[in-house]
Amino acid sequence: MHGRRQGDYDLRHCDRDRSALVLAGGPKLNAKDVAISAFDVGGCLIETTVQLGAARPKNAMIGSELLFTVSSDFFAAPLPPLLAPEEVLALQTRYHSLCRNAGWRHRWLDEERNEGGGEALPASLVERWCAVRERAGEKTVETMGRINPERIHIWAMTILLAVSERQEWNIACWRLDLDEATPHLSVFIVPFYKKRTKHKIQTCVSTRHHFGKRHQLSALQDWIGEVCAPLGLRRGIPSEITAARHLKPVVYRRHEREKSDLAARKAAMDAERTAFDEEMRRKRIKLEQWEMDLADREAAIVSREAEGQALAEAFTVREQELSGREISEKMLRVRLSERSKSLEKGRKAAEEKHAQMDRRLKELASVIYDGLAVSHAILEMDESHEAQTLRDVVAALKITLDHQSGIATLIAKWQGRTRFPTNGLARPG
Q1: 287 lies in which domain range?
Q2: Cα–Cα dist 285/278, whole Å
Q3: Quick check: 39 and 3 in contact, CB under 8 A?
Q4: What pLDDT is recorded for position 88?
Q5: Which sign, positive or negative, has the C-alpha torsion 219, 224, 227, 232?
Q6: Cα dihedral sign for 56, 60, 62, 67?
Q7: Do 99 and 189 lie in a common domain?
Q8: What is the pLDDT of residue 423?
Q9: Backbone angles phi, psi at 197, to 5 degrees
Q10: Residues 277 and 236 in one domain
């Protein structure tokens, strides 16, 4: 069920985009010339036991699975080729000879499922790898890009050839899983031994005979280390040194998922913490900017307050100056008012004086006129030459005085020249 990727088996560790990269090999036909699937592990083990003519106890194990794994970085794409071209050719020749002798048929999982829709994929591992990568999703493409399929091919052929050469092991089938995190190879064998009795030699299937003791399993690790040494691999560190405890694949994957979940949570928490620290850093920068802006604003406020204080002081001084000027203007207006009143009083006095002088002039003119009349009358009584001259003068004066308009004109001119000026006087307010 696991090989066919079916049933209730946990397949979360398998990449569906790479399901076409699961390859199985096994017998083409059984003893009855009926086609047999390389993915039918139980059928292949039983058929191999039958062909071997081996006996096994009822309900006993019918075979063993040898799981071959290697560190994932061994398949890294940037690494150099494992073997020289001539060595690769010799390895392929030996492997093809093995397939012919064993009567193996290779089959891909999509062929087993009859998923032949669309363009058929190549049969070669390397070519199929490239074809699957071209149509896979982004995550799968990235994962496949880190793996070199050439290394997988050489590694798998090396192991299959080594297993086929082991004594008392018959390969029933094998499966190369390339849809999981690390490529691995499962080889299903029928382990047997020759049991000698008193009357015959019997072939018996027995896993306990080959793998029943601890030192036998340790010897298997030593053996596969020697097989893969030409590829640059070395044996895994023994459990006596690492104190590692074997876990079932289901338990191991569960632990790995838990570790992956923890790592994902830790990564998420680290990302959140990083984001939080970045947010706090931005907020601290923003706070520092705010503090700088606040300091600048406080400095500006202090500067404006100082300017306002200076303006207030200047305004106070100006007010004092204006107040003093207003007081001075008031005093000046008072003085001007008093001066105006004094001038008005003087003008009125001068007008009164001029009026009195006008009256006196008129009176004097009347007196002169009367005196001239009397003088003219008196002079008419004197016949002397001097009297005649005086009479002429008096007559002339009288004639002048008789012309009232002339006298009025003279008086008006005199008044105009002697009148106190009233225009242009300053008035209070």
Answers
A1: 272-418
A2: 10
A3: yes
A4: 92
A5: negative
A6: negative
A7: yes
A8: 46
A9: -110, -175
A10: no
In a domain, 362, yes or no: yes
Both 71 and 118 in one domain: the answer is yes
> Do 287 and 177 belong together in one domain?
no
- As averages over each run of 10 residues, the pLDDT of the chain (429 residues) reads 80 86 88 83 90 83 92 89 91 93 90 75 91 90 92 95 93 94 93 85 88 88 93 84 77 84 92 92 93 92 91 90 89 88 87 83 75 69 69 68 54 55 43
Q: Could you tell me the sign of the dihedral formed by the alpha carbons of 307, 313, 317, 320, in that order?
A: positive
pLDDT score of 405:
44
User: Where would I find the H helices in 200-248?
Assistant: 207-211, 214-228, 239-242
Between strands 104-108 and 23-27, the pairing is: antiparallel
Whether residues 178 and 277 share a domain: the answer is: no
Name the DSSP class of 197.
-
Q: Are 222 and 134 in the same domain?
A: yes
For the chain, how many structural domains are there in total? 2
Beta bridge partners of 195: 202
Pairing of strands 64-68, 184-196: antiparallel
Residues 42 and 146 in one domain: yes
- pLDDT given at position 90: 94
Structure tokens at 341: 């009143």
Q: Is residue 340 a contact partner of residue 428, using CB atoms and an 8 Å limit?
A: yes
Give the CATH number, domain containing residue 68: 3.30.930
Which pLDDT score, from 0 to 100, does residue 281 have?
Answer: 93
Both structure tokens of 135: 């149509």
Give the span between the Cα atoms of 99 and 103, in whole angstroms: 6
Token readout for 348 is 């009125």
Is 305 a domain residue? yes
Query: What is the pLDDT at residue 394?
Result: 66
Helix 385-402 with 404-418: angle, nearest 10 deg: 70
Residues 133 and 209 in one domain: yes
Per-residue pLDDT at 428: 41
